[in-house]
Amino acid sequence: MEVHDYLRILQARWKIVAVTTVVAVLGALGASLLTTPIYQASTRLFVSTSSGASVNEIYQGNLFSQQRVASYTKLLTGTTLAQRTLDRLGLSDLTPSQLAEKVTASSAPDTVLVDVKVDDASPERARDLANALSDEFVVMARELETPENGGEPTARVVVEQHADTPATPVSPKTKRNLALGFAVGLLLGIALAVLRDRLDNTVKDRKTVEELAHTGLVGTIPLDKERQEHAAIAFQESNSGSAEAYREMRTNLKFLDVDNPPRVIVVTSALPAEGKTTTAINTALVLAEAGHSVVLVEGDLRRPRVSKYLGVVGDVGFSTVLSGQAGLEDVLQPSQYEGLWVLASGALPPNPSELLGSDTAKHVIDDLRARFEYVIIDGSPVLPVTDSVVLAAATDGALLIARHGKTTREQLSRAVGNLGSAGAHLLGTIMTMTPNKGRGAYEYRYYYESDVKKDAPAQQPAQPTGGRRHRGEPTRPEPYRPEQEGHDDAQAGQHYRAPQAYSAESAYREQSVPTAVSRPVAPSPLPGPRNGSVVDPGEQR
Where is the AAA domain positioned along the sequence (predicted)? Predict the structure, then answer.
């Protein structure tokens, strides 16, 4: 790994580093606050020998004293002196071994000075122990250095400095502990971030998705929290990053196969909760915005969500037609968005896979292909069930959803393999819920809206057709519908114009079960009939 790889990891996983550092600092602070304060009292001893008459004798005496200092530091930390100190003070709550652990003796090289330090939770007792220990050692050293036959001791020890009551504790050192906790937490956080990145097998970039799917990335949809409450995007009013991402995907779809562009498309994913249904809904809407006639089929016959998100009746629909209980004209429902029709799931069948793989399902799909320019099918996830695999084999192909940071490489690879084993054509992949900030984030909103605010004139009134056309695009003629029975405005031999806002027409919403509706005909690019001639309802694009 190079330096920019580590920087990329830190930029993507800075939260791990931050949380680990904060936890380490808080741990160091907690340990400092919970640790009992320790006070330290210190004394200093001076070791000397009897002075000689000559310079050589004095030099030899100094060497002898320095050698004695090294031995005395061992005696000062022994249990014998500790026992004598406890007896002198009359303390019974400490053992000689415990007191010996509290004593530290040290001396500087080439000196005859010994520093004695005693640690204790009480500053007064630390002072008393240090002074008593030093006084007892003076006596002990005299006893050890005095010859057995009497005479002057060969060396003597003097307490050069007695201990005072310490004012501040020597432990814990809060500032040092906090600095150490910060350093340890930072290093540990970086290590965890790198390890997490190495162990992360989710898809997060175009290169990985294209390598696993063996096809191109059709679209990248940024994360939009508003889609959690409202799945459908009002494209005629929205210039958000999500809306522009879907418009870019619409363009890519048209260039997948210029000579024979896909018109019947299954939108599926490896597992649930990857944005499959939301992507299918907005793909249909963005195609309808461009002036195409689109039908959105709720092909997930296990956990349907399209009818709920778009507010259409879901009790009758795809399964009703497949079981022969109703015709396609009886269950097609216009949505509140112009150009978009919905075929709900209907009652949930016990055998969705067999029903979707039947010849009847193929005939229904072919019928929808003849009626509409685009048929978008919201299918079930590929790995749990085979419903979408069966549907994709009977259509122009499938768009496979991969959720950023959620779909693993293995899951995506298995989904691609399942589609390929059934002979389904994988049109491309779509990465959903990509981050809005950081590397690779999309900033459509800033650039697009800033240009609109700068260049656009005063706010124009909304188009009566719902505003599905791009700004500046020439006005298209409203698509005509064949004659519809039972409608007051439909006369024999005349065309019936579809409502401009379907949700506002009580004729399509007040019935508990949708009545038979006319077959929507895609607007033809050729000039319309002249001299009042009537379009044959059987003519399709």
Answer: 265-395
Identity (one letter) of the amino acid at 188? L
Distance from C-alpha of 381 to C-alpha of 389, rounded to nearest angstrom: 9
The predicted structure's pLDDT at residue 59: 59
Residue type, 234: A
User: Reduced to 3 states, what is the DSSP secondary structure of residue 171?
Assistant: strand
Give domain limits for the chain: 3-35+172-199, 39-161, 206-450
Residue 448 three-state SS: helix
Least confident range from 24-28, 54-58, 409-413, 520-524: namely 520-524
Better pLDDT: 59 or 268: 268
Q: Residue 172, preceding bond cis, omega within 30 degrees?
A: yes
User: HEC string of 503-521?
Assistant: HHCHHHCCCCCCCCCCCCC
Distances (CA, A) of 416 to 42, 212, 319, 419, 426: 76, 8, 27, 5, 8
pLDDT digits 0-9 by tens, 369-388: 999 999 999 999 999 999 99
List of residues 6+ apart from 405 with CB closer than 8 A: 202, 204, 433
Could you give phi then psi for residue 350, rounded to 5 degrees? Answer: -80, -20
The CATH class of the 206-450 domain is: alpha beta
User: At what angle are helices 3-12 and 174-199 packed, to 10 degrees?
Assistant: 100
State phi, psi for 417 to the nearest 5 degrees: -65, -40
Beta strands in 67-215 (DSSP E): 103-106, 113-120, 155-161
Q: Is the pTM of this model over 0.85?
A: no
- What's the CA gap between 1 and 81, in Å, rounded? 60
Residue 474: what residue type?
P
Of 264, 519, 228, 492, the C-alpha closest to 379 is 264
Tell me which residue of 292, 185, 168, 194 sits closest to 235, measured CA to CA.
292
pLDDT tens-digit map of 499-516: 333 332 333 333 333 333
User: Per-residue pLDDT for 452 more than 50?
Assistant: no
Report the distance separating Cα 183 and Cα 172, nearest Å.
18
Structure tokens at 192: 């965890």
Domain over 39-161 is classified CATH 3.30.70.1130: yes
